[in-house]
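Sorry to interrupt, but I need a hand with the structure work. Could you write out one complete protein record for me, on any chain you like? Just paste the record in under my message, thanks.

. . .
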Amino acid sequence: MSSLAKQNSIIADINLAPEGRLKIDWVSAHMPVLNRIREQFEREQPFKGLKVSVCLHLEAKTAYLAKVIQAGGAEVTITGSNPLSTQDDVCAALVEDGITVYAKYQPAPGELKALNIKALEAKPDLIIDDGGDLATILHGERPDLLATIRGGAEETTTGIIKLRSLENEGTLKLPMIGVNDAFCKSLFDNRYGTGQSAWDGIMRTTNLMVAGKTVVVVGYGWCGKGMAMRARGLGANVIVTEIDPIKAVEAHMEGFRVMSMLEAAPLGDFFITVTGNKAVIAGEHFDVMKDGAILSNAGHFDVEVSKPDMEERSESIRTVRKNIEEYQFKDGRKMYLLAEGRLVNLGAADGHPAEIMDMTFALQALSLRYVNEHYEEIGPHMIKLPYELDEQVARYKLESLGIQIDELSDMQKTYLQSWNV
């Protein structure tokens, strides 16, 4: 299997494998829930004889998920969902372990999609997707590759929005589970994972002080909550902008200043977008920002900060530090964009902590098994991850922490389920 993976893979350098293996070994030692699921998969072989194609941010934690799925009997092919988050040494280690990899750090323009297509040309039975990248290809230019696919699981808010759009149009062709909507994903990965890892990327990239600065968090979903919470913990003055009045009230009651983006634009030192939408920071905002403002994105695609609007106002653009582009505006002000406007926590750091991705990827692994067992009854629909899988991951996590919780007695269950007791 290893020789076949080496023959088929497209990676930067197979000689980097020893470094990548050390990274994978490190995260696997801190992912007890996924380790427990791996033991189950090794015994039960739920994917025996099946092909699985994975499109995720290709770093060590993702690599370990691929190895867990492989341990369940699958022939695994993996590709990257972001040109800056792929780690070439991790790719090499996976190839050495018999997993076919189509991914490189900073591939040539257009090459990322070509590599994604290669992963689908492996004719998988099941897929794991990120941001709907594979689903978009399958429902767009390559519907011929749908024939073998039983279904799959989607990692992100952005991907779920796309899949629901396809379903609403009546054009969704696959059973898909929205892992991002699971409690053990959104409550922990999006809030604590993004909150820590995005600030890790911002701080290690800029090497600047956060305390005392004004941070504008654009969007107050679970990721925005995490970003705002961690910014306050770092000593920042935090402003939240929102379009949802309920979330805006929530942010206000958490003690954050809430205002429109146009009001916040001249006040911010750091801007972080976490909306999944397009051009949430655009021309009219750049026109009133202070000199030296730092812009970053923790959403999925590089469209939340409008780079065309920045380019239109610039007389020069240069890289002043790794992952920092300086836009010299015609009026003399300078704006700094981190990680090309892509995910700052993966493009400029190592992504979420291993303990967080342990829960998320446990959900992915269990979702994949569930889809394989129920794809015929699910049909071409988007479904929520079954609650029992969510609860199973939470119980495994508690057990790994040595924490015990109470259970309802039969009397208590009867009381809660009755109206006349």
